[in-house]
Design brief:
By secondary structure, the protein is mainly alpha-helical. The protein has a three-stranded parallel beta sheet. A two-stranded parallel sheet has the order 4-5. Helix 4 packs across helix 7, helix 7 packs across helix 8 and helix 10 crosses helix 11. It is globular, with a radius of gyration of 21 Å. The N terminus is likely disordered.
Length: 345
């Protein structure tokens, strides 16, 4: 069997990513994920984009809210410009093969690998014995998400690179253990753009997060124009004028974050932004940033609200996407079961 399988993966290029179905989406999700998904789709890249509802329940979720949040994220995908005729949009839990492959990978991955995962340490805090087993094995399910579709590239932030390295380790070990070189690709991270990691408006050293207790720390995709303007006005900054070079932003996390947001929203480099605003104070910069943010986000917000008022339209997209995803995933999981030696009728 191994003689018929190439040493290097030779299948199609495929991009996969997902957003967890927990909490409201914000500007960081838009700039760091949604906007990039649309760009890749428009470049003709085949994209599989799922709503990670299975990952969401690693911590307690109200069932009704989980369903609503799944629809909300799908609405955000569509409102941002993703086209269901070009990208496969689906709920993770609608494809049973995710869970099947995750169990097989649980038996491939090593405890020492998972012990090194820093995100579990951060999320479980001082009482890791109270964390769910699912939170601990979250990166293994993530590997299954990626490799089930034989994705070759995954858009990730810096904080997810470690998980993608684990995915590569699992793929390599599976290929080696079962003598099937090249069966699973070793996916590459896609980290690019001026605002791949958007920080909190209240603390430039912390990532913008939907779990932050302060709503002022983030711009939600459902915020209206007045709310966006208020949040940017109240965003933490400093007393100094903006520098004229990017190097001048070092040691100034809030200034660095606001400049990066402006750059991403205006599709400019940070150098170009500072060429325009260098030497000016935040009293001049923040109103311009507010105008840009409102102008950029208003169409997305309006379309999200329209879609969320019509759940049937969202459900139709998710159902179609789930069917397409299952068509791709099923042959892969069946081949994996054959390779592993599971009985098949």
């Amino acid at each position: 069997m191994t003689d018929q399988i190439p040493a290097q993966y030779t299948g199609p290029r495929r991009i996969l990513s997902g957003i967890q179905a927990s909490g409201a989406l914000h500007l960081g999700n838009y700039l760091g994920a949604l906007k990039r998904f649309v760009e890749m789709q428009d470049q003709g890249e085949p994209c599989f984009l799922f709503v990670a509802d299975m990952h969401a329940i690693t911590v307690w979720q109200d069932p009704d809210k989980l369903t609503a949040q799944t629809r909300e994220i799908a609405a955000a995908y569509l409102a941002a410009g993703l086209d269901p005729s070009k990208s496969v949009i689906f709920p993770q839990s609608a494809v049973p093969a995710h869970a099947e492959l995750a169990w097989i990978f649980n038996c491939v991955a090593r405890l020492g690998w998972l012990d090194r995962m820093t995100q579990f340490k951060e999320k479980s805090g001082k009482h890791k014995e109270r964390a769910s087993v699912g939170l601990y094995t979250y990166p293994v399910l993530q590997a299954a998400d990626i490799l089930l579709y034989k994705a070759t590239a995954v858009p990730v932030g810096e904080d997810q690179k470690q998980h993608l390295e684990l995915t590569r380790d699992i793929a390599q070990k599976f290929n080696n253990d079962y003598g099937v070189p090249g069966f699973f690709p070793l996916p590459d991270p896609l980290i690019q753009g001026p605002a791949t990691r958007v920080m909190s408006l209240r603390d430039g050293s912390a990532k913008m997060s939907k779990s932050d207790p302060s709503d002022l720390s983030r711009i939600n995709l459902t915020d209206d124009a007045d709310t966006i303007a208020t949040k940017i006005k109240k965003a933490k900054s400093d007393m100094d004028a903006l520098p004229e070079t990017v190097e001048g932003l070092e040691g100034r996390p809030e200034a660095k974050n606001l400049v990066a947001i402006y750059a991403a929203l205006s599709n400019q480099s940070r150098e170009a932004v500072l060429a325009e605003f260098g030497g000016q104070g935040f009293g001049a910069f923040k109103p311009r940033l507010s105008e840009l943010a409102v102008e950029s986000m208003a169409p997305v917000t309006a379309e999200m609200r329209r879609l969320m008022a019509d759940p049937a339209e969202i459900d139709k997209v998710l159902a179609r996407g789930a069917e397409q995803a299952r068509e791709v995933a099923q042959p892969v999981i069946e081949e994996v079961k054959k390779i592993v030696g599971f009985w098949q009728a």
